[in-house]
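On clarity, I found the account of how folds are encoded harder to follow than it need be. Since the whole study asks how a given chain folds, the encoding of that fold should be made plain. For the editor and my fellow referees, an illustration may be useful. An entry of this sort, consisting of the sequence and the corresponding backbone structure tokens, reads as follows:

:::
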Amino acid sequence: QVQLVESGGDSVQAGGSLRLSCAASRVTVCMAWFRQAPGKEREGVAFIDPFTSQTIYADSVKGRFTISKDNAKVTLYLQMNSLKPEDTAMYYCAAPSGGCPRLRPLVWNSYDHWGRGTQVTVSS
């Protein structure tokens, strides 16, 4: 079992930046960030495999968001730049129970452990 706690969400204006953090209770393999806006499905945003340094991003955030992981502190980050109103959502970090879900890295049911989320609101 692993506990995940997100932080860093806030209300910002369009064009602004935020850095989300996710503290894990133990070292994990691959991790990912997801988001869910009201009335919409949970969407995979970014994935990282710390063993291969591979990162994968949703098309909607490529070039604006950067995922990283501090293995020493067991913390996952999401740097979000050039934020848009459509980025408004609850953001969750996720970790798998078993191996790294390299075949479906941005699919929500590839992950078993979830944090409670941190709210990001972007105003125009």
Q: What stands out?
A: The chain has no helices and eleven strands. The radius of gyration is 13 Å.
